[in-house]
Description:
Elements: H1 2-21, E1 40-43, E2 46-52, E3 57-63, E4 76-84, E5 87-91, E6 94-98, E7 103-106, E8 112-116, E9 120-128
Amino acid sequence: xxxxxxxxxxxxxxxxxxxxxxxxxxxxxxxxxxxxxxxxxxxxxxxxxxxxxxxxxxxxxxxxxxxxxxxxxxxxxxxxxxxxxxxxxxxxxxxxxxxxxxxxxxxxxxxxxxxxxxxxxxxxxxxxx
Length: 129
């Protein structure tokens, strides 16, 4: 029994030593500006600016009237906030018309796609689903 206590004590001392030399690095924030992020033309009439974090991305998308996103799905959950313009689209089996101020929540793996009915700007947040 004494041997178990000594061995246990050595193990506990070793764990405490490891924890005390391990350093936790606190992540630092950063300031971004849409004006300083280069827009990428990802398909005809769709221009994207993206800021990425460790688990979430925030994207500004400008769509010219008539521009369409492909029908698709993905593993992350997505929110779209429509700032200006109008768009039509679907999530799963439900069709929507999006107008300024609307927010649509798209669950992970749900099929969806959209079309700009006029020049449109929306913001997307993607995070773990």
